[in-house]
Design a protein that fits this description.
Elements lengths: L10 H4 L4 H10 L1 E6 L7 H14 L5 E6 L5 H13 L3 H21 L4 H27 L7 H8 L1 H16 L4 E4 L6 E2 L10 H11 L1 H5 L3 E5 L2 E4 L4 E3 L5 H11 L4 E6 L20 E3 H9 L10 H6 L4 E5 L8 E4 L8 E14 L6 H15 L6 E5 L4 E6 L8 H15 L7 E12 L6 H9 L8 E4 L5 E6 L4 H8 L1 H10 L1
Parallel strand pairs: 1-2, 1-8, 2-5, 3-5, 4-6, 8-10, 9-11
Antiparallel strand pairs: 6-7, 10-11, 12-14, 12-15, 13-14, 15-17, 16-17
The structure holds aspartic acid and magnesium ion.
Length: 499
């Protein structure tokens, strides 16, 4: 195994500390590393994970790992849950069988001793058998509609499978890896599908159950994404929620750093699928990162940054296949860095009416619809009124899943047509394009430059955020690419002028 990779330009190395200070730091520090679905899905990826853990373990006093389900597994589990509701036995059984084959094939190819391998195979079978039982129960009771809590009980299996595989691989290589389910460790409310942790209760459970393990040099391999209510019912933290798990744990164990490993080189100045010239951004402040995640950068779960900012825990985003690259470092506000860093795009829904007036009723309709369809509150919204028209727009976070916009639009339309008081309102998908950079508001030149580049595009609305580092324009979805292409050169320009 190649463990002599030189990617140790970590945050602490970049800050000029004396050698003595560094040694002291090493004996007290804690690192949380989260590995995403693409970094645990193949033997090549798992070999990288092992190599990274073997490299980092001697450098940190405490090491915690958070693992996502293998790529595509959560989607497959969601589909199984829906097929169970339709009593499509053959359908959910076929999915379970495919998942079993995929996990067992992966285990077969890993360099494991026969004891580890046999135990792991038995674990995989048991977990999938339990999940199949839940599907069976749903399928038999079609009279009761499937509730979101049942879905959460099914879709958490992907993470539980993945942690077992990683922990076995560590043990085989003399690291004391132990797979841990976070259902009884991270305590949340009961908003199934998009739960929010109770940090006090979670910290208590972690102090009692996890800290003693860390003190015994165990490397816990924790399930991302899943959590549980106070009474132990499984919940999930929203799609892509493993990042959030890493952030919750980092706060509770008082981590010195958290590293998110995926298959991209870092946070990019735009989505490289849309903009070829997109580049890695070396450093971002927490504010900028939070806005980026909020407004659509798919690399991170949008809720993970705030707890890190509150506790000043540096975050690094790295590529598991190229650990020698520094990636992106996110930490406290950077000084003298007035610059445009990135351009993002995210889908939203707009509501328009040919009159103006109170927004109370329509806002609560919007909020109720979002909560009942995709489990989120309409808290990210733009509204503009003139004497004779109203425009409202709400962002649909990527964590709500790929079909969310469609589902919300259809439900909204149905509800608007039900009551005469909403006559005239129309709902439409829109695109929210956001320019992110420190102190955008402090420099009116930036807004002029942004708008100057959009003279050929019809803007439905414009908004400058109070957080001082984002400026959004709302456009028709068909103008998304053109808007991004027009704005991206601003990131290059400001990089040149500030470095
Ligand atoms: N496996 C979950 C998902 O696909 C959580 C995650 O990947 O972070 O959403
Ligand atoms: Mg992710």
């Amino acid at each position: 195994m190649d463990t002599d990779i030189d990617y140790n330009r970590s945050f602490r190395d970049r800050t000029a500390r004396t050698a003595r200070e560094s040694i002291e730091l090493m004996s007290t520090n804690t690192l949380v590393m989260k590995f995403g679905g693409s970094s645990v899905g193949t033997t090549t990826a798992l070999t990288q994970v092992l190599s990274i853990v073997l490299h980092e373990q001697p450098r940190w006093k405490r090491l915690l790992l958070v693992v996502s389900a293998l790529d595509g597994v959560t989607d497959a589990l969601l589909e199984a849950a829906h097929l169970a509701q339709l009593s499509n036995r053959r359908g959910y059984r076929r999915i379970t069988a495919t998942l079993r084959t995929r996990h067992l094939a992966l285990v077969e190819k890993l360099p494991l001793g026969s004891n580890e391998r046999n135990a792991l195979q038995a674990d995989i079978d048991r977990l999938l058998f339990d999940m199949l039982n839940i599907c069976q129960t749903i399928s038999d009771n079609t009279a009761d509609p499937m509730t979101p809590d049942t879905i959460d009980a099914i879709i958490g299996v992907g993470e539980r499978l993945a942690t077992r595989i990683v922990a076995a691989l560590l043990r085989q290589n003399n690291v004391r890896g132990v797979a841990i389910d976070t259902t009884e460790l991270i305590v949340t409310d009961d908003v199934y599908g998009n739960a929010t942790p109770n940090m006090t209760l979670t910290k208590n459970r972690i102090d009692t159950n996890l800290i003693p393990m860390l003190d015994r040099q165990i490397v816990p391999v924790l399930t991302g994404f899943i959590a549980g209510t106070q009474s132990g019912k499984p919940t999930t933290l929203g799609r892509g929620g493993s990042d959030y798990t890493a952030s919750i744990l980092s706060v509770c164990v008082n981590a010195d750093e958290v590293w998110i490993w995926s298959d991209v080189d870092g946070i990019m100045s735009a989505d490289p699928r849309e903009i070829q010239e997109a580049r890695v951004i070396p450093e971002l402040s927490y504010h900028e990162m939070a806005e980026l995640a909020f407004f659509g950068a798919r690399v991170l779960h949008s809720r993970m940054v705030i707890p890190l900012r509150e506790h000043n825990i540096p975050l690094r985003i790295k590529n598991v296949f190229k650990p020698q690259l520094v990636g992106t470092l996110v930490y406290q506000r950077l000084l003298n860095q007035q610059a445009i860093k990135a351009i993002t795009a995210i889908q939203g829904i707009s509501l328009q009416a040919p009159w103006s007036g109170s927004l109370v009723k329509i806002s609560s309709l919007l909020d109720e619809t979002l909560l009942s369809t995709v489990g989120i509150h309409a808290d990210v919204s733009f509204s503009v009124q003139s004497s004779s028209a109203t425009f409202l727009c709400v962002i649909i976070p990527t964590s709500a899943g790929p079909d969310a916009v469609h589902i919300v639009k259809n439900t909204l339309e149905a509800r608007l047509s039900e009551k005469p008081e909403f006559q005239g309102w129309t709902a439409q998908p829109v695109s929210v394009i956001t320019v992110i950079g420190a102190e955008l508001n402090g420099n009116p030149q930036w807004s002029a430059q942004i708008l100057g580049r959009l003279s050929s595009i019809k803007l439905l609305a414009v908004a400058q955020s109070p957080a001082e580092c984002s400026f959004s324009v709302i456009v028709d979805p068909k103008d998304t690419e053109h808007t991004l292409t027009q704005l991206h050169p601003l990131t290059m320009q400001s990089t040149k002028s500030t470095r």
